[in-house]
Specification:
Elements lengths: L4 H9 L3 H9 L2 H36 L2 E6 L1 E23 L5 E6 L6 E2 L4 E6 L1 H51 L6 H47 L2 E3 L4 E6 L6 E2 L7 H4 L2 E16 L11 E6 L4 E10 L9 E9 L10 E18 L4 E4 L2 E7 L5 E11 L3 E6 L6 E3 L13 E4 L7
Length: 433
């Protein structure tokens, strides 16, 4: 398309209606060309301005890239060991009958809460009742024999006293007046004295035998009474009846049967105090001690309870490299039930008010050593060697190399270079409890 030079100059120099008229007087091709050129003249400055603005933005982005960063802060850190276990009753037993008998009355059932000494059942033992009657009769007879032997001893002692005095008198007379007493009378008196003395010894022995027989009879009676007392079966401790093996009318054999599950009356569990048996790893053994309070988390109830280390085996199992440790948990309201799973949190090490940064802000170079990228006051990256202390799942203690309030790069550090200008953007890192 050919554009008349005079027409274009008129568009640049004139603004009035006469100029427009002049343009119209030209050919249609000339008019169209003039309009197109005018539009181009207005678009060129805009395009030039737009290109200049875009180039400036890219330069800024390339010169100071955004980086995620965190502040060095002071916090309390703790390193815990969590071990899962199962609640067990503090003690659990099967209640057996001491003597064989039929259940005459049963006072408990499944889930019955009982106190120590509370009556569980009464057994009927007719043959033992007859034995008690026989023992009482034998004791009375022994007591009567003892009284008879005591009377015989008194009679023998009296006879000995008379015989001994008679002999002594005759012997004294013979010494002073030998002609008044015959030797035969003295010999007879001496024989009666010895005979009476022997009678006293025999009576004393008979009395001792009667006393021993009386003691034996009383012991037999007491024994049978004690055995008959076992007909009243009572609870040995506070607990819950978790199983019933026999009911009214059933015969309970004496608790010496090999099939104990069939001969017991019930199973009694002490659930007011529960125990957790936890295998403590070898590395954590030095950190625990008896009486230490621990947190016990029960996921089924979504609650945390307090427990104490009650006892430990005192040695490490060579097979598992763990130590048997028991934690007791009070359960006064019976909210916890044996068989529930729980996790015990054992604090291994803790520090307070120390410098910390997230684990992602440190590039570990060795044991207790690492490197962090610092954003200095000129917003340039600076590599800093740091000494590390306690490490948790999300944070690490800074012993040296960083100061409180400094800004460090969070995340991958290999994509940045030392001395590079950056634009730090602080991020919130949630703590792992």
């Amino acid at each position: 398309m050919n554009i008349n030079r005079n027409t274009v100059l008129k568009f640049r120099e004139n603004d009035g209606a006469s100029n427009m008229k002049t343009a119209v007087t030209n050919s249609p091709a000339q008019v169209f060309g003039a309009r197109t050129c005018c539009a181009l003249l207005f678009l060129v400055p805009a395009l030039v301005a737009g290109c200049g603005s875009s180039g400036k933005t890219k330069a800024d982005a390339a010169g100071a890239p955004n980086v995620a960063a965190v502040k060095v802060t002071r916090q309390n850190l703790s390193n815990d060991l969590e071990i899962a276990s199962e609640f067990l009753p503090y003690q659990e037993i099967d209640v057996y009958a001491k003597v064989s008998g039929y259940i005459q009355k049963l006072y408990v059932d499944w889930g019955t809460h009982v106190k120590q000494g509370q009556l569980l059942a009464v057994l009927e033992i007719p043959e033992l009742q007859q034995q008690l009657t026989q023992d009482e009769a034998a004791l009375r007879r022994s007591q009567q024999d003892q009284e008879r032997a005591r009377e015989e001893l008194g009679r023998a002692q009296s006879a000995y006293g008379v015989a001994h005095i008679t002999y002594k008198r005759l012997a004294d007379v013979q010494k002073t007046r030998p002609e008044l007493v015959a030797q035969q009378d003295i010999d007879v008196a001496q024989g009666k004295d010895l005979e009476a003395s022997s009678g006293v010894s025999a009576a004393r022995a008979a009395l001792s035998a009667a006393e021993q027989a009386s003691i034996a009879s009383k012991a037999a009676l007491d024994k049978d009474k004690a055995m008959f007392g076992y007909a009243r079966m009572t609870a040995p401790f506070d607990g819950v009846v978790t199983k019933i093996y026999a009911y009214t009318g059933a015969l309970l054999p004496a608790g010496t049967s090999s099939a104990k599950s069939e001969s017991a009356l019930c199973q009694l569990s002490q659930n007011s105090l529960l125990r957790l048996v936890i295998p403590v790893p070898e590395r954590a053994v030095p950190e625990i001690h008896d009486g230490q309070t621990l947190e016990v988390d029960v996921s089924g109830l979504k609650k945390t309870f307090s427990g104490k280390i009650a006892r430990s085996s005192g040695q490490i199992d060579p097979t598992t490299r763990t130590m048997h440790t028991e934690v007791t948990v009070p359960n006064p309201t019976y909210e916890l039930v044996p068989g529930m799973y729980a996790s015990v949190r054992i604090p291994l090490h803790a520090v307070t008010n120390v410098l910390t940064v997230p684990m992602q802000a440190i590039q570990f170079t060795g044991t207790g050593q690492g490197v962090a990228l610092i954003v200095n006051t000129q917003k340039r990256l600076e590599k800093r060697e740091v000494k590390l202390g306690l490490q948790t799942a999300a944070e690490v203690e800074i012993l040296s190399g960083l100061s409180e309030g400094e800004t460090v790069v969070f995340g991958e550090q290999n994509q940045f270079k030392e001395g590079e200008s950056v634009s730090p953007k602080l991020v919130e890192v949630p703590r792992v409890e």
